[in-house]
Amino acid sequence: MRQSKLAGLFRTGFLSVVILISLALRGGCEESGKNENVGFPHSFADLAEKVKPAVVNISTTSTVTVPGSPFHQFFGPGQEGQGDQNDQFNDFFKHFFKETPDKKLKQQSLGSGFITSKDGYIITNNHVVDNADEIKVTLSDGRDFKAKVVGRDGTTDLALIKITDPAGNLPTLVLGDSEKMRVGDWVLAIGNPFGLEHTVTQGIISATGRVIGSGPYDDFLQTDAPINPGNSGGPLVNMKGEVVGINTAIFSGGQGLGFAIPSALAQSVATQLREKGKVVRGYIGVTIQYLTPELARSFGLKETRGALVGEVVKGGPADQGGIRVGDVIVGFDGKTVKSSDDLPRLVAETPVGKTVQVAVVRNHKKMSVSVKVEELTPQKAADQTSAPVQSFGMQLDNLTPQLARKFGSAEKSGILVVSVEQGSLADEAGIQQGDVIKEVNRERVGNVAEFNAALKKRGKGEPVLFLMKREQQTFFITLESE
C-alpha cells in the first residue's frame, strides 16, 4: 500500500514536473520567438513588399564625343622639285586612309533611386545622372516618368532629381536615423543591378564610419548585402522600412564589401539641393594630418585622438581665431574629434557665419578658441590643401620636411605613402611605405588636393597610372580603379 501511494505521488510529482517544464519551454519558445522575429526574421517578404513601390529604376541618355582620326601626310614637302610628286602620293594614300570627323553618340546607363515626397523628389547618386540629357524613372508597377535634375553634389556623390509630371500620389520612403545603426543590424538593399529591375538583397551592417578614400567627407556604412553595378543610388533600409543609407560603392574583386552613404548626410545634402540647388559647406582654413602614436606622444597626448594642424591658411577663420600649426584639435562645436576624418565633416556641416568653440591641445595643455565659420568656395578649397586620405589601401599625406626626415625621403614635394594596408590593391602592386607619388595619370601632383582632383578626372572603371619615387628609383605602377 505504501509503495502504491509512493508510486502515485511519484507519478503525480513527475507529471507536475513535466507540466512545469513544458510551460517553461513554451514560455521560453514564445520569448525566443519574439527575439527571433527581431534578430532572425523568417522572411523579409513583408518588408520588401512595403518598400519596393517607392524604389525606382533610373535610365539616362547622354551624349558622348568619339574622337575622329585625322589624316596624317605620309610624305612631307620634300626638296625642290619633289613637292608635286609628294602631293600626288599623299592624295593617293588619302583615298585609302580617309580623315574621319568626331562623332557624337548617345550613351545609356542604368541606376537606382527612391522617392522621398509625393510630388516626385528622388534621391540618387550623382554619378547616375551626371551629364544626362534625358532621365527616365520606372516604378515597380511599371509606370514610367520623365525626370529632371534639381541639384547635384559631386563631393558626396549625391543628387536630387524630380519627376516632371507626377500623376497622383506617389509611394515614398522615409529617411531613418543612420546614427542608430549598429554592426550586426539587418538591412535590405534594393535596386537595379545589371538591369535586373527591383532586385532585393539582404545582409547586415558590417561596419560604420568607413573611410574608403572617395572624398573628404567619407563616413560610409559598410554592408554585406550584395550590391552590384546598377544598385547605385538605391536605398539601404532597416527592418522598419526606413532608409538608413544610399548604396554607392563596391570594392572590385571583393565579396560582401558594399558601401552606403549614411542617411544623416543624405538628408542634409538633399535638403540643401532642394532649397538652394547646391550644397553650402563651412570652412575654417586649416590643413590637418593624421595623428600617429609617435606624434601623439611628442605632443603630450595619451591617445591618438584628434586632428593635428599641419598648416593654417593666413588670414582665414582659424588664423583669426588663434589656431596655430602644431595644435591638436580634439573638439569642434561641442563634438568630439576622434580623428582627422571627423573634422572636415564637422566643419562642412556647420552653418556659415556661426562662431564655434574649438578645443585644442597646445604645449600639453587643453584650451578653447573661438572661430567664425566661413563658406567654402572653390578658391578656398584650392588654397587649402586637403586632409590626408586613404586610397587603394594606401594612407597618404602631403610630404612635409618633418615627414621627409621621418621616412628618410630626399624628395621635397609629392604625396607620401605613410602606410600600406596588407592585402590591398596597393600592397599587391608592390607599393611600399615611404614611397612618394609624383604623378597621377601623367599629371604632376604636389599635394593631396591635387591628388584627389587628378583621380576625379579619370573615366569610370579606368585604371590609374602612378609615377612613384623610391629612394633614387623612379617607376610607374598601374592600379585598377576602385
Overview of the structural elements:
With 482 residues, the chain is of the alpha+beta class. Among the domains are: 178-276, Thrombin, subunit H (Beta Barrel); 282-383, Pdz3 Domain, CATH 2.30.42.10; 389-479, PDZ domain (Pdz3 Domain). The chain has helices at residues 2-39, 45-51, 83-96, 126-129, 263-276, 293-298, 317-321, 342-349, 378-383, 401-407, 425-429, 448-456; strands spanning 55-66, 103-115, 121-125, 134-138, 144-153, 158-163, 186-191, 199-210, 220-223, 235-237, 243-250, 258-262, 282-283, 286-289, 307-312, 328-332, 335-336, 355-362, 365-372, 374-375, 389-391, 394-398, 415-420, 436-440, 443-444, 464-470, 473-479. The strands form 5 sheets. Strands 21, 22, 23, 24, 25, 26 and 27 form a 7-stranded antiparallel beta sheet that branches. The protein has a 6-stranded antiparallel barrel with strand order 1-2-3-6-5-4. Strand 18 (355-362) and strand 19 form a beta hairpin. The chain is globular, with a radius of gyration of 30 Å. The termini are far apart. Residues 1-37 and 78-82 have low confidence and may be disordered.
In short:
The chain is an alpha+beta fold. It has helices at 2-39, 45-51, 83-96, 126-129, 263-276, 293-298, 317-321, 342-349, 378-383, 401-407, 425-429, 448-456; strands at residues 55-66, 103-115, 121-125, 134-138, 144-153, 158-163, 186-191, 199-210, 220-223, 235-237, 243-250, 258-262, 282-283, 286-289, 307-312, 328-332, 335-336, 355-362, 365-372, 374-375, 389-391, 394-398, 415-420, 436-440, 443-444, 464-470, 473-479.
